[in-house]
Write a structure and sequence with these properties.
Helices cover 43% and strands 23% of the residues. The chain is of the alpha/beta class. Strands 1-2-4-3-5-6-7-8 form an eight-stranded mixed sheet, sandwiched between helices. It is globular and about 45 Å long.
């Protein structure tokens, strides 16, 4: 009897383990090449192949470090929620760095040319829209740090987006005309202790969206600095960039609820 019970427990354990392994295996990923003019870009697409039919999709924009493992992990996490997720490449050739000066230079090269910055973001969004599992009428954009600013700039173009989420972004201020062009609902997840973003800019950002009648939400996490969602943030050696586990977990939940309300999943 005892041996029989052990056998049953072992079999049950194997079934559970097999289910978990299978669940992980359902998330598929591949690199997708695309172009912005003469620049070759390499994005990272993630989706759950057990989900049938076309589904809502989320464009994910990396921090100023480039298309690294962190942003790819976020794409897989979104895929596990049932979305198709595309981590775009804003620098070209999927470049990545861990050096602040290099990251700053790469980001500056993009952000100095606003029209070019927006055009490159739109190229990523169009590539996501064209993927076979994507419902092109249900698109969102999520970004971190430099990526948070990027998705706001994308929204200011009047891009056909249902939702935009900025995590510890720089909150670029739109003109009155640009704010009126926003078609997406906006969620900004911001750290109260982020020294990169003056309080006056936070107020101007809120005012610009409010005056334009945008459906906007902002959640401010006490004590959180810049980069609060990235577990590797402390390793970069920059005083204002720090991981904050509570703010990370809470902001992800807030994003999930926000997207679920819009897409109904």
């Amino acid at each position: 009897y005892a041996m029989n019970m052990i056998s049953r427990i072992t079999a049950a354990t194997l079934v559970v383990l097999g289910t978990l392994t299978g669940a992980e295996a359902e998330i598929q990923t591949r690199m997708v090449g695309y172009h912005d003019g003469g620049t070759t870009l390499q994005g990272y697409l993630a989706w759950d192949d057990t989900v049938t039919g076309k589904r809502p999709a989320v464009m994910v924009v990396h921090e100023w470090w480039g298309l690294n493992d962190y942003v790819k992990k976020r794409a897989r996490m979104l895929a596990a929620l049932g979305y198709a997720a595309f981590a775009v490449d804003m620098y070209g050739d999927a470049r990545v760095t861990e050096h602040g000066k290099e990251a700053s230079a790469w980001a500056k090269q993009i952000t100095e040319n606003i029209a070019g910055w927006r055009r490159r973001a739109l190229a990523g969004l169009q590539t996501l829209r064209e993927q076979p599992m994507v419902d092109p009428q249900r698109l969102a954009a999520v970004g971190y740090c430099f990526g948070g600013a990027t998705v706001m700039e994308l929204a200011y173009t009047g891009a056909d987006l249902k939702a935009v989420v900025s995590f510890h972004g720089s909150l670029p201020i739109p003109s009155e005309e640009e704010a009126r062009q926003i078609r997406a609902s906006v969620l900004a997840a911001h750290g109260a202790a982020d020294a990169f973003v003056p309080q006056a800019r936070v107020a101007r950002f809120q005012q610009a969206l409010e005056q334009a009648g945008v459906d906007w939400h902002m959640v401010i996490y006490g004590g959180a600095r810049h980069g609060f969602t990235n577990p590797n943030a402390d390793s970069y050696g920059i005083e204002n960039i720090r991981y904050n586990r509570k703010a990370d977990e809470r902001s992800w939940r807030h994003m999930r609820q926000f997207l679920e309300a819009i897409f109904g999943r």
